[in-house]
Every structure is written in C-alpha cells, then in structure tokens.
Here is the input.
Amino acid sequence: MDVGTSDDRAQAATWGRIPKTYIRLTDDTSLPLALQDRLIREGDELTPDNPYDVRTLPGSHLKWLTDPASAARVLGELAALLS
Here is the structure.
C-alpha cells in the first residue's frame, strides 16, 4: 500500500471548489468512526467555505456489498441534487 507523501495532500485552492459528501459508516472497523470524524474535521478546516455534507449509514464497507439499498438511496439523493 502506498501511504503517499505530503505532496499528495488535498489543496484548498483546488479541492475546495467542488461540493463533497462524506458517508460515515458506523460499524466500519477498517476506518473507525473517530478516524472518519477526524478526516471530516480536517477537510472542513481546509475548506471552511465548502464543508462536507455528512451522511451516516449503519454498517461497514462490507454492508454496502451485501445490502446496498441504503447506500443506493444516499447516492440517488446526491445524484438528484446534481440534476
């Protein structure tokens, strides 16, 4: 796995212009909630005029594969916002 370098970090000048959504997964063991919340917080601090639209779903990444209905609903809602 490539963990990247500081050159790979998001830059406010380019990353902050596009609306973004973070889907928190309450039971994710690969990315625990505390880490997800930290990523959201740091992203919002980087682009305070363009904070994340945070959605929370029960389950983990595996849940999306075995029962995708809730994730599909959120993605459908987001797609509707773009049209």
